[in-house]
Write a structure and sequence with these properties.
The complex is a heterodimer.
Chain A lengths: L3 H7 L5 H16 L3 H8 L4 H42 L1
Helix pairs in contact in A: 2-3, 2-4
Chain B lengths: L2 E3 L2 H8 L4 E3 L4 E5 L9 E5 L1 E3 L16 H5 L8 E11 L5 E5 L7 E9 L10 H7 L3 E6 L5 E9 L12 H53 L3 E5 L3 E6 L4 E6 L2 H29 L2 H6 L3 E4 L3 E5 L10 E2 L2 H48 L4 E6 L7 E7 L10 E4 L4 H4 L3 H4 L2 E6 L6 E7 L6 E7 L6 H12 L5 E3 L4 E2 L2 H64 L2 H10 L1
Parallel strand pairs in B: 4-7, 22-23
Antiparallel strand pairs in B: 1-5, 2-3, 3-4, 6-7, 6-8, 8-10, 9-10, 11-12, 12-13, 14-15, 15-16, 17-20, 18-21, 19-20, 21-22, 23-24
Helix pairs in contact in B: 4-5, 10-11
Classes of the chains: A mainly alpha, B alpha+beta.
């Protein structure tokens, strides 16, 4: 017998709400970030959806900042390796 | 009879063709070729009649003589003209038509022009001509077959389906007309020769008489010029652009005397009236009109075509017309300017109204208001007043009135017919008051549907006037009897204004929340955009550094991450 709970847990479930918000974000970037475009694209959102959109932006910004920090660390590490190689040679 | 023997070169020049040959028999053969031409050879004499200008005239001269062609009993289906002569075939079998004097002619060459713009005739075809028994027939047409000429050669006395007829009278008549024309030209030339002879003889005497006259004319009109020639005297007026040639005679002296009188009189008129016209200089200048003083009149040029083809003589009548026209033009320009100003104001008002409507919409004022309208009858009466703050009752923006026939029966159909009336975008300061009455025995019910502030004096006055008649027995929507309309209106508007303001405040708060959400999203989207940019730059830089590492170290470095 399969463990049904496990199977359920690995299923990819479409998060339609999130997809919708991502589409809105894409459209905002395509049309240009300004009040008129944002008002037109978000006027039909409920309060919950509005909060979710804000939250989505915050998470994305955090992820991007984290990724940038990682790149910075990587660059410092490579720089240090290159220095060591120079001294060794 | 004045005839001239023309050379081959002269004949070619006059007929505009190179295909002319001397046939050795004191005659020319003209090959009649070109667009719409017959293509046959026309034989003409070498001696041609001369015209009034003493120039030889081509004998190939088609004439219209309906009596001759109509009598042939043929419908040519076009306009016919003829040459008279004799038809034969050349040694080579080519058609030749020799032009002869009318009375000596045996045949007739008929040219039938057909087609062209607005002309439905199309001539005839060769089988028709053959059936009739034409000696010769050819059809010459344009590429589109829309216009062309038919050429027929028939015996001069031909009659379709009948024995030949006697046309000697007709030919004699044509001959007579031709002879008369020659005589007339001869007479004309003889008269002219005599005039020239007399003119040369009279020249010195007449010139002596006209010299002082000319000098006088030139003092009154410097544009008058003259030229002395051996046979003639030419005078011209440069400004008016005419030129006349006269023989030296007493008639010339008399004519110049008349001109002198005329010039003198015109000069006097100019001296009298030009200063009067000049007094209007400033008015004309403000109207951008330029004035030209001619010999006998003045003309005006304006930016419009108003004064085109008008001229004003140097006379009281001319001057009066001038003043009248300039005044009318001035009024016309003023009207046009006023119209332009009015249109500009209308546009400005429309723009202002549009702005107010947008502001009102933004602030949450009702975008649409509809109400049942029935003013006459015993049941279901109902009407709404939308009144601006200045007391003006607004016209409905649309009417969905059911009984559309009313609009043909009554001029005031909007108020007579039943149906819905609608108003788009209620503006700040406007109030909406309604009444209804279900049937005769029940009271009018008054209601205030919208008000955003206290009622103005103007609004109060209008609405009290409108409702006064209905107020003898009225209630408000809570079935409270209304005894004092004015007081009821003031209070009802006050109460409604509080309610409406609340709606506007809620709307305003919602708007403010929306604004704050939008501003926050703008900020977040910009932050995301910048973070994404930085991330991409850092990624690119990291890749560049990675490429500088030796392969092993590179892998090691990646492994460390």
């Amino acid at each position: 017998m399969y463990n049904l709970e496990f199977i359920e847990s690995i299923k990819i479930v479409d998060d339609k709400e999130k997809e919708n918000l991502l589409k809105i974000q894409d459209e905002i970037e395509k049309r240009g970030i300004n009040k008129e475009n944002i008002l037109a694209l978000t006027k039909n959102l409920s309060d919950n959806q509005k909060n979710a959109l804000k939250q989505l932006y915050r998470e994305q910004i955090e992820e991007l900042n984290f990724s940038t920090q990682q790149y910075k660390k990587k660059i410092l590490k490579i720089k240090s390796d290159l220095e060591k190689l120079k001294k060794f040679n | 009879m004045s005839k001239k023997k023309v050379t081959l070169e002269e004949a070619k020049e006059i007929l505009g063709s190179d295909k002319i040959f001397y046939n050795g028999n004191r005659k020319f053969n003209v090959v009649d070729t070109g667009k719409y031409k017959s293509g046959i050879t026309i034989e003409i004499p070498q001696e041609w009649n001369i015209n009034k200008n003493r120039k030889p005239e081509s004998p190939i001269n088609y004439i219209v003589y309906r009596e001759l062609t109509d009598g042939m009993n043929i419908d040519f289906n076009g306009d016919s003209s003829i040459l008279l002569g004799r038809y034969r075939l050349s040694k080579n079998g080519r058609p030749v038509f020799e032009i002869t004097e009318p009375t000596k002619s045996k045949d007739i060459l008929i040219k039938v022009s057909w087609g062209g713009a607005f002309n439905t005739t199309r001539g005839r075809y060769s089988n028709y001509a053959k059936e009739i028994g034409a000696e010769f027939f050819t059809k010459r047409s344009s590429n589109g077959r829309g216009a062309g000429n038919d050429y027929w050669i028939l015996p001069v006395d031909f009659v379709r389906d009948m024995e030949s007829r006697d046309v000697s009278d007709i030919l004699e008549d044509i001959q007579r007309q031709e002879d008369e024309m020659v005589i007339e030209i001869d007479d004309y030339i003889a008269r002219e020769d005599l005039e020239i002879k007399n003119s040369i003889e009279n020249k010195d005497r007449v010139y002596g008489q006209i010299q002082p006259i000319i000098q006088n004319i030139q003092t009154f009109n410097p544009e008058f010029e003259f030229e002395i020639q051996a046979e003639s005297f030419i005078y011209k007026e440069k400004k008016e652009g005419y030129s006349k040639t006269r023989r030296y005679s007493d008639a010339l002296v008399s004519e110049l005397n008349d001109i002198l009188k005329k010039e003198k009189s015109e000069k006097n008129a100019r001296d009298t009236y030009i200063p009067m016209y000049q007094e209007m200089k400033n008015t004309l200048s403000t109207l951008d009109i330029s004035i030209t003083y001619n010999n006998t009149d003045v003309t005006l040029t304006a930016p419009t075509s108003y004064f085109d083809y008008k001229f004003y003589s140097y006379s009281q009548n001319g001057y009066n017309s001038f003043i009248n026209d300039v005044t009318q033009y001035q009024e016309k320009i003023a009207q046009e300017q006023e119209e332009a100003r009015r249109k500009a104001e209308e546009l400005k008002r429309a723009a202002e109204l549009k702005r107010r409507k947008e502001e009102a919409k933004e602030s949450g004022y009702p975008e649409k208001f509809e109400f049942w309208n029935r003013l006459g009858g015993a049941t279901n009466l109902s009407h709404a007043y939308v009144i601006e703050s200045n007391g003006m009752i607004r016209e409905p923006d649309y009417n969905n009135l059911s009984n559309i026939n009313h609009k043909y029966k009554y001029s005031d159909w909007k108020n007579e017919a039943d149906g819905t009336q609608g108003y788009m975008q209620i503006l700040p300061g406007e109030i909406i008051i309604t009444y209804t009455k279900d049937y005769t025995a029940v009271p009018y019910i008054f209601d205030v549907k919208w008000a955003d502030d206290e009622i103005t004096e103007a609004q109060l006055e209008v609405i009290c006037d409108e409702l006064a008649e209905k107020a003898s027995f009225a209630e408000n929507s809570d079935e409270q009897e209304i005894t004092e309309v004015k007081q009821w209106v003031i209070n009802a508007v006050k109460t409604k204004a509080i309610e409406c303001k609340k709606q506007l405040n809620i709307r305003s708060q919602e708007q403010s929340q929306d604004d704050s959400f939008v501003e926050e999203i703008v900020s977040l989207a910009e932050q995301k955009f910048k973070a994404k940019e930085k991330n991409e730059q850092a990624g690119k830089l990291a890749s560049e550094y990675e490429e500088q590492l030796p392969i092993q170290t590179n892998q090691q470095s990646l492994g460390d991450d």
